[in-house]
Amino acid sequence: MSSGSHTVITAKAIASLPPVDGAPESEPLVRGSSGWRNVRVYGVLIGLIIIWEILGRSGLFEPIILPSFSEVLQAIYTSAMHGDLFLAIGWSCYRVFMGFGLGMLLAVPLGVAIGWSRVCEDLFDPVIEILRPIPPLAWIPLSIIWLGVGFKSVLFITTLGSFFPILVATISGVRNVDKRMIEFARTLGASTSQILLKVVIPAAMPQTFVGMRIAVGFSWMVVVAAEMISVKYGLGWLIWKARFSFDTATVMAGMGIIGLLSVIMTKAMGYLESVLFSWKKGIVKG
Amino acid sequence: MTMESAISVRGVNKVFGGFQALRNVDLDIRQGELHVFLGPSGCGKTTLMRMVSGFEYPSSGRILHNGNPITGPGPDRGLIFQEGVNFPWRTVRRNVEFGLEMKKLPKDERRRTAQKFIDLVGLTDFASHYPSQISGGMKQKMALATALANDPDALLMDEPFGALDAQTRSVMQRELLRIWSEANKTIIFVTHSIREALLLGNRISLFKTRPGEIAKIYDLDQELGKRNVDRGSTDRKLVDMEAEIYRVMQEAE
Lengths: 286, 253
Known about the structure:
Number of domains of chain A: 1
Oligomer: heterodimer
Structural class of chain A: mainly alpha
Order of helices and strands of chain A: HHHHHHHHHHH
Number of strands of chain A: 0
Distance between the termini of chain A: 42 Å
Helix content of chain B: 25-40%
Strand content of chain B: 25-35%
Shape of chain A: globular
CATH superfamily of chain A: MetI-like
Order of helices and strands of chain B: EEEHEEEHHHHEHEHEEHH
Strand order of the largest sheet of chain B: 6-7-8-3-9-10
CATH architecture of chain A: Orthogonal Bundle
Distance between the termini of chain B: 34 Å
Number of helices of chain A: 11
Helix content of chain A: over 70%
Structural class of chain B: alpha/beta
Number of strands of chain B: 10
CATH class of chain A: Mainly Alpha
Number of helices of chain B: 9
Radius of gyration of chain A: 24 Å
Largest sheet of chain B: 6 strands, mixed
């Protein structure tokens, strides 16, 4: 009996692990698992929403403390139809893309330079080591003093938020390029610039991309906070503004949308990664 | 086979921070020869090969390639590593084209040359695969094709089949002999397997450790009375010689 229940637990534990790339054959191990899997995956989420709805409607809490789920949906609908929800999403996305793009444009070349050249490493490493641990949000006051309240300030903060994750990942990607790969290229006649362009940079790209994935998440966190403080429009501003009118439902609506957008972006990055670096995972034959 | 020497090693010593890795090495590797460096780990065989490739320099003495001193790595000496180093983001075809691309050859010429060597090593059906999609033996064939497509004078192979299973290894040894006899290159082949050395080499340089020296040079074509392409691993003379070399290696310890 005890060994039987042990087997069941093990099977469950295995089934609940995230699917490993190219290992779909593990699924038929647990019969009828896909139906149960959906229950497991979405069950807790739906359960929490139901409890939330019940609590919200129970009258135990003021709506300003805990509006029900349906009231939050209503708030999303209202601000989508009659308010500026889409404008807010558009602005936030725009700022994230701009900040992320700028951060990437600065971090990738600098990261390659630092990872590749001892001189660049000596020049920039100490500065980076000191600046890197400072949270981007701690820069907000300074950015307002320097750049004023507005788009430039938010762009600065968002750029910072994506700059360091990409930089650090690129440096380590370049440093970790297999030495023998470089030697192989040299025996094939590659010049130093060819080694950099044709070997080191492509070899480091997967790791740079990991940094980019982290940077997207960072940019979202940072943009919302920056918007609360220094601009009009955007999801952060939407939340902040709703707080002043004690519109808790809209606050929660904004938060939920930020969560959803982050999930979508992360999935998109994951998809992009699997397309760009499809050469990494392969079926090893024979 | 002509007797001119492709690579001449003259009184080479190599010291790494007080440790004498090689002492007084003199060696002539003939044009078109398959020359095996055989010895236990730490005997300096890889060090000597890396000096021929140009990634290390002798502490004293000289190494000449076709009469010219070696000053660094170059496309005239192709290198093959143990683990089949490659460029994993490139397909087999684009890997094989790598050296030609560095020379900035036109695309159709790269294609043609690469195809010739992909066919030579038997990877015709895998030209559009990525390295992660092919086996270890195939990766080594690909590395071989990559090096050969660049048309080097000499190929330097550092325990190239060491990471392969026994079956694949013996297939690869036969393949190498076939490719060597077709491509007509000078090859330095580093191994610690006596059997592999006896099956492949025209000659063997047997290294000993502490300090690293060449203990003996065997002319296998003469002593075994068979060219390397015709040898079998159960030939009487080959088995006897394996025992002898094993004894010499034991005594050198």
